[in-house]
């Protein structure tokens, strides 16, 4: 059984990517499972006020999540985990354990001018949620300890050539591509109804697919966004560039 992790950061189009994978009925999909120990477990790396939330799970650990996602699932041909790298910071060692050794690690990164502009437009902007530096740290960890050349996808390629990128991804990880992967029926998605997820995935849930974008806004955001957002963009740009330079783009013959 194929085991795949897609590492990403907030506002990187990763949820739409996951929704494409969910159209394949022969896979077991996990949506950000390490967010539970990150926010609520005994190894939590967040503030105590989260203990008051309804999704507080004090017994959740990084080890228990690793065991959950590495289990065998009868009738399934692959496991796909979509996760934010920030949720596993300081706990990368769990991926060196025997039960995790067969996972293929892949990466999705987005230019911070776009991801942080999108984050700002949600109405809640915290520079600590950028997540690109943590994605870079995970990329370096994987490259040095698990796979010297992990697959990297840039969100611009995904948005510009969704069919071609998804076909490329499926071939790289060994799961069957289907022509209708980028189309779905709008509505709720299992695992996206947790209180922690509320408000973050609404656009994908009301959408009916991931469609090719034919135009990109190349205008500079300087002077348009608050200084704190511009500062965060500058701070994360070098990490984005360090990852994106290793991206695999669709074969030019397919474009």
From TrEMBL:
Pfam families: Sulfotransfer_5. InterPro entries: P-loop_NTPase, Pyrrolopyrazine_biosynth_F. Gene3D superfamilies: P-loop containing nucleotide triphosphate hydrolases. This is Sulfotransferase family protein. It comes from Nematostella vectensis.
């Amino acid at each position: 059984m194929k085991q795949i992790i897609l590492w990403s950061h907030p506002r990187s189009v990763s949820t739409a990517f996951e929704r494409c994978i969910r159209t394949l009925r022969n896979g077991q999909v996990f949506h950000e499972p390490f967010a539970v120990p990150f926010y609520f477990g005994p190894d939590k790396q967040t503030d105590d006020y989260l203990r008051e939330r309804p999704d507080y799970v004090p017994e959740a650990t990084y080890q228990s999540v690793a065991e959950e996602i590495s289990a065998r699932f009868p009738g399934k041909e692959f496991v796909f985990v979509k996760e934010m790298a920030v949720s596993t910071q300081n706990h990368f060692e769990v991926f060196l354990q025997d039960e995790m050794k067969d996972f293929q690690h892949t990466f999705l990164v987005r230019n911070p001018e776009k991801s942080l502009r999108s984050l700002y437009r949600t109405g809640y902007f915290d520079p600590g949620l950028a997540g690109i530096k943590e994605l870079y740290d995970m990329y370096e960890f994987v490259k040095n300890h698990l796979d010297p050349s992990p697959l990297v996808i840039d969100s611009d390629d995904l948005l510009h050539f969704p069919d071609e990128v998804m076909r490329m991804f499926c071939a790289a990880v060994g799961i069957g591509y289907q022509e209708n992967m980028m189309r779905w029926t709008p509505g709720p998605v299992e695992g996206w109804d947790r209180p922690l997820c509320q408000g973050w995935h609404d656009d994908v849930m009301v959408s009916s697919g991931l469609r090719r974008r034919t135009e990109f806004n190349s205008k500079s955001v300087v002077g348009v966004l608050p200084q704190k957002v511009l500062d965060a963009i500058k701070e994360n740009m070098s990490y984005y560039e360090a990852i994106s330079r290793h991206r695999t783009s669709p074969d030019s013959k397919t474009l």
